[in-house]
Design goal:
Catalytic activity: L-threonyl-[protein] + ATP = O-phospho-L-threonyl-[protein] + ADP + H(+); L-seryl-[protein] + ATP = O-phospho-L-seryl-[protein] + ADP + H(+)
Strand order of the largest sheet: 2-6-7-5-4-3
CATH topology of the largest domain: Transferase(Phosphotransferase), domain 1
Number of domains: 2
Number of helices: 12
CATH class of the largest domain: Mainly Alpha
Strand content: 5-15%
InterPro entries: Kinase-like_dom_sf, Prot_kinase_dom, Protein_kinase_ATP_BS, Ser-Thr/Tyr_kinase_cat_dom, Ser/Thr_kinase_AS
Keywords: ATP-binding, Kinase, Nucleotide-binding, Serine/threonine-protein kinase, Transferase
Family: Belongs to the protein kinase superfamily.
Order of helices and strands: HHEHEHEEEHEEHHEEEEEHEHHHH
CATH architecture of the largest domain: Orthogonal Bundle
GO molecular function: ATP binding; protein serine/threonine kinase activity
């Protein structure tokens, strides 16, 4: 069961491979998830032609792009000749990089959106406080179970409702220990309205506990599966995609040092009562390469979830922010089709959802991949085509061909603007 307070992670679906493995290993089956690069080019060309035919829409997009460019700095050019080898620990960012990133946060430093990490205060809870909050881990307070442990709903002394994530007591499971430390360090230095809020932690003996914001409305995957009987409409799905894009853009560009989430997936996207998305579960998070030092990637163990893994990262062990972009592309396909990334019970040609959906899109039959729970209409068909077009770019086999997350957010904003205009026009 996935927790409404934390994204669930099945440990059997996590991929963990040893470091320093030769980069010449054979191609993985994950490489079949991504569309061919030639398709990516044709989709981009087609998009340009469409814009040329509709100057009004092109002007609208130009205005949106101009506005968005005011909010965030340009992405530094990616270099290809330098590598950096390091483990999965968190290092301090260079002072120059920190000053540059702090000066360019734009809207991401507004009071209701995010705050500078140096202003965060990490609270260390006592066992007495945790016991009081959860009524001694009462079974009636249990709200979820995941690979890391059990999640309880709790109430702090000041009345704040929280989710209390209690790690499994496995004495020799070093992986769980590393994930716990990583999640504490990451959550302690980030704050954004589309990320789960961190209240504090406890580490005492065998007890490892995280206390974070309680998000009451389940996961995105729950809603795509209609767990509460309500269908998630296309407008809500588009808003959720934009929320996630904002959260990941913040991690990549507006923290003191870029952070790669490494586990963007529908079960790690929590929804509030008004269907605003919050990204959770930072157990696999990793500091990105320091661009100012000339590094272009980090060589590290492969971690993530089957179906969402970047095939280039899987084959080369070279991790960059573009690995999150690939996972986001899978998430976009999931939002449009309603299907999970891997559907083992379907016929062979439909088991890998991204491969199946992108084939439908490239052959002009994208409507056949639309979630059957969604209504086919001119407005919905338009959004479907545009999101598939963006997915195609995100799923490019090579990271250099994928857009940065900031660009994904800009494109989605434009799609939402055009979608709203279509809904208000006469059809």
């Amino acid at each position: 069961m996935n927790s409404p307070g934390f994204g669930g992670r099945s440990r059997s679906s996590d991929a963990t491979l040893p470091e320093n493995t030769s980069n010449s290993r054979g191609s993985s089956t994950y490489s079949s998830y991504a569309p061919a690069s030639s398709h990516h080019k044709s989709a981009t060309t087609a998009a340009a032609a469409t814009a040329a035919k509709n100057p009004a829409k092109s002007v609208g997009r130009s205005i949106i792009d101009a506005l968005m460019s005011c909010f965030s700095p340009p992405e530094p050019p990616e270099k290809t000749s330098t590598n950096v080898y390091s483990n999965d620990s968190f290092e301090a960012s260079s002072s120059g990089s920190e000053k540059r990133r702090s000066a360019n946060r734009g809207i991401y430093t507004s009071s209701n959106n995010s705050t500078h990490s140096s202003e965060r205060v990490t609270v260390k809870f006592t066992m007495e406080e945790i016991n009081n909050a959860t009524k001694n881990f009462s079974p009636s307070f249990k709200i979820g179970q995941g690979g890391f442990g059990t999640v309880y709903k709790g109430q702090l002394q000041d009345g704040t409702i929280v989710a209390v994530k209690r790690a499994k007591k496995i004495l020799y499971d070093q992986h769980l220990g590393v994930e716990f430390q990583t999640e504490v360090k990451t959550l302690a230095q980030v704050e954004h309205r589309n990320l789960v809020k961190f209240y504090g932690f406890l580490e005492y003996g065998e007890e490892k506990i995280l206390v974070v914001e309680y998000v009451p409305n389940g996961t995105l995957r729950d809603h795509l599966d209609c767990f509460n009987g309500n269908i998630l409409d296309f407008a809500s799905r588009l808003d959720i995609a934009i929320d996630v894009a904002h959260a990941v853009t913040y991690l990549h560009m507006y923290t003191d040092h870029p952070i790669i989430h490494r586990d963007i997936k529908s079960s790690n996207i929590l929804l509030t009562d008004n269907l605003r998305a919050k990204v959770a579960d930072f157990g696999f998070a990793r500091l990105a390469a320091d661009r100012e030092s000339g590094a272009t990637h980090v060589s590290t163990q492969v971690k993530g979830t089957a179906g969402y893994l970047d095939p280039e990262y899987l084959k080369t062990y070279q991790l960059t922010e573009k690995s999150d972009v690939y996972s986001f592309g899978v998430l976009l396909v999931e939002l449009v089709t309603g299907r999970r990334p891997i559907e083992p019970k379907r016929e062979l040609k439909e088991r890998i959802t991204t491969k199946w959906a992108m084939k439908k899109f490239s052959s002009g039959e994208a409507v056949l991949a639309l979630d059957p729970k969604l209504t086919r209409s001119p407005a919905n068909n338009f959004v479907m085509e545009k999101i598939f077009e963006l997915s195609w770019q995100c799923l490019a086999p090579h990271r250099n061909n994928r857009p940065p997350m900031r660009k994904c957010a800009e494109i989605l904003w434009t799609i939402r603007k055009d979608y709203t205009e279509l809904l208000t026009s006469k059809f």
